[in-house]
Amino acid sequence: MDYDLIGRVFVYFAMAAGITVELSFLSMCLGLGLGLTGALCKLSPNRWLEMPARLYVSVFRGTPCLIQLFVIYFGGPQIGLQLEPFPAGVLGLGINIGAYMTESIRGAILAVERGQMEAARSLGLSKSRAMVKVILPQAACLMVRPLGVNTIALIKGSSLVSAISVLELTYTAHRYISSTYRPFELFILAALFYLLIISIASFFIRKLDQRFVLLM
Amino acid sequence: MVKVINVCKRFGPHEVLKGISLEVRRGQILVIIGPSGSGKSTLLRAINHLEAVDDGEIWVDGVRVNRPLKGLKFEKHINKIRQDLGMVFQQFNLFPHMTVMENITMAPMLLKKIPRKAAEEKACGLLEKVDLMDKVNYYPAQLSGGQKQRVAIARALAMEPKVMLFDEVTSALDPELIGEVNKVMKKLAEEHMTMLIVTHEMRFAAEVADHVIFMADGVIVEEGPPRQLFFNSSHERTQRFLAEVFK
Amino acid sequence: MTGLDFSVVLDYYPVMLAGLMWTSILCACAIALSLVGGVPLALAGISRNRILRSATGFFIWVFRGTPLLLQLFLIYFGLPQVGIYLSPIVSGIIGLGIHYAVYNSDVMRAGIVAVETGQHEASRSLGLSRAQTMRKVIIPQALRNVTPALGNNLIALLKESALVSIITVPELTLAAQRAISETFRPFEFYLAAGVIYYDINYFLELGLKRVELKTALSR
Ligand SMILES: Nc1ncnc2c1ncn2[C@@H]1O[C@H](COP(=O)(O)OP(=O)(O)OP(=O)(O)O)[C@@H](O)[C@H]1O
Ligand SMILES: [Mg+2]
Fold first, then answer.
1. Which domain holds residue A82?
2. Which range marks the domain in which residue C210 is found?
3. The CATH number of the domain where C142 resides is what?
């Protein structure tokens, strides 16, 4: 073990871990937005909303995330979409996780009892108001666990954007290895950072879950 | 107040309502009884259009519920009518993520634009009526079945409906809790609230009803004042049902 | 910038086909390793030996808490530092196989725990040993219950197999990259690769549904 080396690169790894967190957070925000929209469209009786949503989920869950990132980053310019690595990474990861979130959110909405919608409608609430006031808050409680699973998958999946040269944790490790030839130390250091990030994320999700469980 | 004319409803090949007609006048209390699966719930749900009927007319306070309108306009129309129809369900259907107070005040604040303070005052009055003043800030999960159902009644009353629909509101309750809910309904009867009540509680039905309808297999077999229907029934089918219930 | 032209993809179909072949070999081997490796990990995870149990728990925690890509790098670039040299394809199979063995073991362990309680006592009372009970009674039932969850893992494995292109395994994604380096048409080739992955994914899902149906019927 070359502890001296670890000491020298530590701060750069910490900064790269920050990029990983930022990347994951932004992608999750995008994914949540897409997931909510996708779920509502997929549940809509209007087939012009339902069909595109179904196609979206099927395509982005049916192909590798890496290929999706490559199509956006390398193929994008061919159709006039020229993006820097970081935004391309956020876009790719966000769209990908959004497809998974669509299914989670749809499942949560369907798990809310049918009587809840009827009770809200019988009071005179419109369908959309009943959705916002009554169904979605309850679905949110049921969604915390799948959200946790997806968040952790996303944090790990964010390592893929190293392939489109975003300087996050994995790519940083890779770069230092090329210059120092000490792969073991540096990969283990990166692994420790990932474990730390994921442990913290899991901790917050557990807290959130406990809170919602108490509420219901 | 409520008028149902020759209403038909089928689920696939299964005909659940086969030409039902009835009328409830202002302040009248109509009780509907009948065996399981005879279409009582379907009828009640059709009145506030939770179930769309295939044929016939439904009128509430001079307005046609199932007007042949399409799209957004119909949505608005039906939402308006539903505000005049309070409905209480067998399974309570309280909103579990809201406190008792929020359950009651949500719809009036949202739909009638009543300010929070006024809505809460109103809710307190209603909670007093259903004898639950001490549970204002509880969540539904912290209440017993009977308490939940009384909150559900208060929630429906908060919209100041012209008619109340009760669908077997005591069927999911333990026997010792049925009385407290029935008491609330009797109180409403004394205030001359117009009500349609589906129930399996014959004693209660006899006490509150102005008019009783006996349904079986999607048709009204017999109707009349409670005394006549319960003690002087002329139909074999009704007698058989009553014998079964009172056994 | 010129318009999109998908006809070049057809010119490169032997390259893509070779990539597809390598992807199939890679996934078949990795799936086998992940299933075979999952069983001992699952058993170790419920062992009575506390040290074995905690060690397994730690191993699983580390492999689930770090990205597959990092694990692949560690195997391919890191092991040579301690004198172990593996070819890209072997590194890829081992990396994917172990990563998913960990996920599979989690599923299997949950399945075993779910059947164990009632069935265990019944078969022990017949005079079977703990090991025999496991082998003859618990594991067959548990495997049947967890087939759908294992299937999901295998589908995820297929999609994540694209990652091994980064450690230069000549599979589908890398084949597309090679074609792109000659034609400068990333959009067409990555899309074509995506379509191929989608199809494999589709047939794999179809096959797994069939298996699920069969196991469900044999109950
Ligand atoms: N959504 C539906 N789809 C198909 N069939 C339905 C549906 N709702 C009700 N039914 C059928 O319609 C018939 C009448 O149901 P309904 O709930 O109105 O009976 P009920 O008189 O209220 O019975 P109970 O006393 O058990 O509540 C039943 O046979 C039921 O199976
Ligand atoms: Mg009913």
1. 3-215
2. 7-217
3. 1.10.3720.10
Do β-strands B2-11 and B55-60 pair in parallel, antiparallel, or remain unpaired? antiparallel
Query: What interface predicted TM-score (ipTM) does this complex get?
Result: 0.90
Query: Which CATH number fits the domain that encloses residue A55?
Result: 1.10.3720.10
| Residues 6 or more apart whose Cβ sits within 8 Å of residue B63 | B81
C43 located within any domain: yes
Note the pLDDT of residue A216.
Answer: 56
State residue A215's pLDDT score.
Answer: 58
Question: Both tokens of residue A155?
Answer: 């944090």
Count: domains in chain C: 1
pTM of the model: 0.87
Quick one: pLDDT band at residue A202, thresholds 50, 70, 90? very high
The total number of structural domains that make up chain A? 1
Q: Nearest CB to A198: which of C65, C70, C159?
A: C65
Residues of B in contact with A138 (CB under 8 A): 95-97
Of the segments A24-28, B92-96, C181-185, which one has the largest average pLDDT value? A24-28
For an interface test with B, the pick among A122, A128, A132, A133 (most B C-beta atoms closer than 10 Å) comes out as A122
Report yes or no: C103 at the A interface, CB cutoff 8 Å.
Answer: no
Distance between Cα B54 and ligand 1 center (Å): 16
Q: How far is the CA of B37 from the centre of ligand 1 (A)?
A: 5
Residue C37 is which amino acid? G
pLDDT per position as a tens digit, A35-72? 999 999 999 999 999 999 999 999 999 999 999 999 99
- Residue A190: which of A215, A163, A209, A172 has the closest Cα? A172
pLDDT at B67 over 90: no
Asked if C159 is an interface residue toward chain A (Cβ–Cβ < 8 A), one would say: yes
If phi > 0 it is left, if psi is from -120 to 50 it is alpha, else beta; for residue C168 that is left
For residue A163, what is the nearest residue in chain C, using CA coordinates?
C166
Residue B35 CA: nearest ligand 1 atom is 25
